[in-house]
Amino acid sequence: MVTQFLQLLDNKKNYDFIINVGNNDNGKEFCAHSIILETRSTYFEDALSNGKARKVNNNFVLDIPDISINLFNILISYIYGGTINIDHKEAADILNLLIGCEKLKLKELYDYIQDYPIEHHQTWLFQNLSTSKEGLLSICKNKNWCMEENELWDHIIRWGKY
Q1: Looking at the chain, which runs of residues are DSSP E strands?
Q2: Looking at domain 1-83, does it have CATH number 3.30.200.20?
Q3: Mean pLDDT of the chain
Q4: Where along the sequence do coiled-coil regions lie (predicted)?
Q5: What's the confidence (pLDDT) of residue 162?
Q6: pTM for this one?
Q7: Is 53 helix (H, G, I), strand (E, B) or coil?
Q8: Cβ–Cβ under 8 Å, residues 29 and 18
Q9: All structural domains of the chain with their residue ranges
């Protein structure tokens, strides 16, 4: 069944949702199915209900300029196929996946991969993500996180133990 859903994405049969990803210089149009998008992601459900996805020629159209084509390709494949392989991915790629999950409200995927950088890329994290006390508090006060505050603190404590 997973393969059939991915084929549906690839062959664009009966699509009703166009997602313009990237910017004007480097953008790509993805054809998708609103029922799958809104079922798998509250981001798309919200876009359909609040009018952010506009109706053009019987299709919904949504612009997402701030996600790379490569990242969106991974995320849309996850939305349709329900699986992802993050083994051997670079730490920066994993962090970009987390950012993409946050934006598209893919909590299930976010929960699945959030520990991967801590468990597999500690050195990279400490070399590239050192921050001041004020910076950390600013991050923690962000209300757009996919997790509760106590969960965030649990992860920070675990990260600090490494």
Answers
A1: 17-22, 27-32, 54-56, 59-64
A2: no
A3: 84
A4: none
A5: 52
A6: 0.76
A7: coil
A8: yes
A9: 1-83, 89-162
